[in-house]
Amino acid sequence: MDVKIGLECHAQLLTQSKLFCSCSTDYHNAEPNTHVCATCLGLPGALPVVNERAIRYGIKVALALGCTIQPKVIFYRKNYYYPDLPRGFQITQYEFPIAFNGLVRIESDGGKEREIRIKRVHMEEDPGRLVYRGTIDTATYSLVDYNRSGIPLVEIVTEPDLKSPKEARIFLGKLRSILEYLGVFEGDLEGAMRVDANISLKGGERAEVKNISSYKGVEKALSFEITRQKNLLRRGLTVQQETRHYDETRGVTLSLRTKEFEHDYRYFPEPDLVPIRISNRIEEIRREIPELPDEKKLRFIAQYSLTMEHANALTFDRHIADFYEVVASKIDPKLSATWIADVLKGELNYRSISMREASKRISPDDFVAMLRYLKKGVITERGATEIIREMLDSGGKPEEILRSKGLASIGSDEIEKAIHAVIKENEAAVKDYKAGKKEALNFLVGQVMKHTRGTADPKEVRAMLTRKIDGEI
Amino acid sequence: MIRKEEIEHIAWLARVALREDEKDLFEQQLSSILDYFAVLDEADTTDVEPTYHVIGITDVVREDEPKEALSQPEVLRNAPKKEQGYFKSPRIL
Ligand SMILES: [Zn+2]
Predict the structure, then answer these.
(1) How large is the ipTM?
(2) Which tens digits make up the pLDDT trace of A213-265?
(3) Domains defined along chain A, listed by start
(4) Contact B86 A15 (CB under 8 A)
(5) Which of A326, A336, A343, A327 is nearest to A305 (CA)?
(6) Residue numbers of B between 19 and 78 with CB closer than 8 Å to A
């Protein structure tokens, strides 16, 4: 089935103050309506003034996406009535956005490289936040918090080049990665990225799905929408051009039955803001753009002889990439890659925490210390994993954990003793092994590991066990 | 000329409820306003750059420095309905 998906991605920019006023953007754990002023509250007579840094961040994003920057931007009013917009209009860009025509490369299913065209990049202000007591269906009123009102957003609009919900998710992950590399965005902040999706199937009209507010939500919402449209077409019905709302908790899209159309927004130039010429800033900002994920990946492969998989895993998140580079500068880069890409990342995923959060508990130096113990044979691989888990869960330094948990691997004398005991206790298994049953050896290794509480190196145990038993034959 | 359905649509966009007599009144008034502006259509604007802004200045920006916000009680002072630090509004989906 031929599916076409285009995304409108709204990303919050990490400025200190809002787009048009000086209210702080540090509102994430704040009481409602404590980060607002006359301007972002839309009080009569209050005048917006553009935040220079926000404009620069917008240009930076557009450059990183390979867009053509426009000579000037003009802000417009987009008029519609909704409680999250205190003035009855949102200040956004329309005919004169920051940039047009960019490109993002993604690795689609099976590693196939695909190019996703970017149609335009523009800036706008975030609306306020609506809160419902109970569920959105049963609440009789909504509560409004304007702390978010006026936070600078950069909106990135793609061409309908995405072919599946999975590709949409991959694209969004790549976009997040690029924005985080630029230092203008923090993807794990609540509501930092919100997406509207346009989706059409061959032979049907385009539907717009609004209100997708998580990375996983994109794939779910689009999958639901494809199934819904397919079912309509199969039954010989038509897919109507409409706007639908994604209900995250139920995983469904609902028709908004909206009576508003594009021309109803009555866009016109915002009379309170003058045009801003941006050409003069471009070269300076271009020089500030750091190495981006694709370049870093290639460099990691060349510089540290990493596999493509490891290089991918290590460069996706800027914080992981930075962590890796510090570790790799102090100890075997390949060993570091394995332990960060395979083990540490797995433990982070399991706990649903980001590297940014985790770095408050694990420093690169802690990680190097742990790897040194492993290399010297002071701890086993299991002990190393145990140290990572303990650092993530309770903090602490590797040497402390090593001591308090008794993780130091034991010498061959003690393994010898344990083997001796296990062979004595499990005569049947030994017999089975001697009779050619290879699985019996796994059982015996397990028993020795149990005896030594995991502080023995399983490879060593296996070798010693076979030597011992085979020697007896 | 502006039609009654358009008046109703515009009123809906502004979330304003109009009585029948008001609709008739606005139908006349908005029509005459549009007629008045129609005079502009007579001017030849070929090769004239559109005016996006009437004052000639550009590039007014401010530094990214946070300043003190209003206090929550001040923010909510004009709100007809509030609850636990929030503005209260009718539910709209
Ligand atoms: Zn403000």
Answers:
(1) 0.92
(2) 888 899 999 999 999 998 988 888 888 888 898 988 888 998 877 666 778 89
(3) 3-285 (no CATH), 291-404 (no CATH), 412-472 (1.10.10.410)
(4) no
(5) A336
(6) 52-55, 57-67, 69-72, 75-76
